[in-house]
Fold:
Amino acid sequence: MGRGKQPLRVVRDQLGLDFSVIYPIWGLMVGNVGDEEIRRAACRAMNVYSAEVFAPYADRMTPVAAICFIQSLNGPNAPITRAPKPS
Structure:
């Protein structure tokens, strides 16, 4: 976690942050996929991936969920159900 010399957790402690909401930059791309079925699958996969990656740090940080833009009304909340649950 983190690409610098110090892990993000250490830097957050130095800054005095108790809890952080993480906005993974790659999550911004999945909602713009042209094909709706692929877009839904990409959002679902992104949310599962984020939940797994950040699970060890759930006591101090959580990622936001990727929510894709739905153009039809067939299950508009399906991607949200795969978002990480608050601890």
